[in-house]
Amino acid sequence: MSSGWIGAGALAVILAAGGLAAQESTDNRVAAETDWSVFQETDPTECFSVSAPTEQVNTRDGAPVAVTRGETLLFIRFSPTESEYGVLSFTGGYPFAAASSITMEVGTNVFQLTPGDLEEGEDPNWAWNLSVDLDQQIISALKNGSQAILMGESARGTLTRDTFSLIGFTASLEAAAAACGQ
């Protein structure tokens, strides 16, 4: 299992905040930096810079389709107890197709994320990369970009394209790092 995967408890805290897109509750939110928010969990201590997409497009056979998806979020995680700082993960709100990859475009930079493998005990609704060095490359691109586009395929064959604004990304990243002592 990749260290980029966010545990169910931490995700529940974030989602319990009333849905990131609505930004209705501030229970565990310690900062909101325009399109990005910062959440902190205390047991164990973990901090997250999180955003929901500003646009979602779902297609099948080249035509737009209406689908029901769960929360779609892009995270940067800081976990002092696990000595992990700046770990990227993405949940598309659906199980990704087996053996697929998720493409992340930030400006001219293109990165591949790997979905969880159910057979390995991982959650197929989540994707991450397998390298701390790549996390740092992605974060650098996000700091310099204006938007991130994540494209994936669901287990049902729906193609998704989620656009995330990067307005406030750097400030939220710095706030999350500071909240977790980095």
List keywords for this structure.
alpha+beta, single chain, 182 residues, Immunoglobulin-like, 3 helices, globular
Structural description of this entry:
- It is globular, with a radius of gyration of 15 Å.
- Strand 6 and strand 7 form a beta hairpin.
- The N terminus is likely disordered.
- The protein is 18% helix and 39% strand.
- It is built from three helices and twelve strands.
- The longest helix has 13 residues.
- The chain has a twelve-stranded antiparallel beta sheet with strand order 1-2-3-6-7-10-9-8-11-12-4-5, sandwiched between helices.
- It is an alpha+beta fold and 182 residues long.
- It has a single domain, classed as Sandwich (Immunoglobulin-like).
Structure, briefly:
The chain is an alpha+beta fold and 182 residues long. 18% of the residues lie in helices and 39% in strands. The chain has helices at 8-15, 132-144, 169-179; strands at residues 29-33, 36-42, 45-51, 55-60, 63-64, 73-79, 84-91, 102-106, 109-115, 126-128, 147-153, 159-165.
CATH topology: Immunoglobulin-like
Could you give the order of the helices and strands? HEEEEEEEEEEHEEH
Low-confidence stretches: 1-5, 12-26
- Side by side, the strands of the main sheet go 1-2-3-6-7-10-9-8-11-12-4-5
By CATH, the architecture is named: Sandwich
Give the CATH H-level superfamily: Invasion associated locus B (IalB) protein
The termini sit apart by 25 Å
Instruction: Give the count of structural domains.
Output: 1
Mean pLDDT: 84
Helix content: 10-25%
Broad CATH class: Mainly Beta
Rounded radius of gyration (Å): 15 Å
| Shape call | globular
Structural class: alpha+beta
- What can be said about the biggest beta sheet? 12 strands, antiparallel
Report the β-strand fraction as a percent range: 35-45%
How would you describe the oligomerization state of the chains in this entry? single chain
